[in-house]
């Protein structure tokens, strides 16, 4: 019996409202039309730890930055090792895994609030957290992002202010420059038409 070829692990990142959901849907359709099996997933996950994180993100429960960073790591480990549909299992089964946010978000959001090296190392050095094959960073200025967020929604999460998103975006840039020799991160200008952005993403995925 021939072994299944491992799928590709592709992560989408960007500040809130950058267009991740929109572009992930288009990429999923494109890959499926090209005969690939695709598994789409997101962080925080739908598990118990993801629920705790959502309560903290909405402001219902108050958590420190270190608590948040540790909770995201716990959620991410489960996301990787869950034997039913964890990232490792799906990749081994030959699926391309597309994930909406991953450890780069922890490094940017929690890393801009507490010891950034601790957050980075806890994620990068964990033997049960896989490293993506490709990270696509949809880049928008905080003002452009806030315009999109406030247009579509009545409620906001704790990080969704222009001031916070400015710190987070700066931290994303710092992290990508630090990781440039070991992680495949591609920065995409997200202030363009949905179709133009999609075409660039397809080119990056096929590169
Ligand atoms: P995210 O998942 O990163 O929060 P979404 O894909 O949900 O982003 O997009 C946020 C909002 O911006 C939605 O209302 C969406 O329709 C809109 N949007 C997405 N991409 C674009 C684009 N390229 N130009 C204009 N509006 C967009
Ligand atoms: P998400 O639901 O993807 O929001 P959006 O669609 O608006 O981008 O993410 C929820 C929030 O979780 C978002 O503000 C970023 C934050 N987050 C972190 O702070 N650290 C992390 O490690 C992850 C994965 C997300």
Q: Outline the biggest β-sheet.
A: 5 strands, parallel
Number of domain units: 1
Described by its quaternary structure, the protein is single chain
The fraction of residues assigned to DSSP E strands is 5-15%
* Distinct small molecules: adenosine-5'-diphosphate, thymidine-5'-diphosphate
Q: Which spans have pLDDT < 50 for at least 5 consecutive residues?
A: none
CATH architectural label? 3-Layer(aba) Sandwich
CATH topology call: Rossmann fold
Q: Quick check: average pLDDT?
A: 95
How many alpha or pi helices?
A: 9
Q: What is the CATH domain class? A: Alpha Beta
Please tally the β strands and state the result: 5
* Overall form: globular
Describe what this molecule looks like in 3D.
With 207 residues, the chain is α/β, with parallel strands linked by helices. The chain has a single domain, classed as 3-Layer(aba) Sandwich (Rossmann fold). 51% of the residues lie in helices and 13% in strands. The protein is built from nine helices and five strands; from the N terminus they run βαβαααβααβααβα. The protein has helices at 20-33, 48-58, 65-81, 87-92, 103-110, 116-124, 142-152, 162-178, 194-206; strands at residues 9-13, 38-42, 96-100, 134-139, 185-189. It has a five-stranded parallel beta sheet. The longest helix is centred in the middle third of the chain and has 17 residues, at 65-81. It starts with 8 loop residues before the first strand and ends with a helix. The site of adenosine-5'-diphosphate (ADP) has 13 residues, from helix 1, helix 7 and helix 9. Residues 14, 16-22, 148, 152, 193-194, 197 line the site of adenosine-5'-diphosphate.
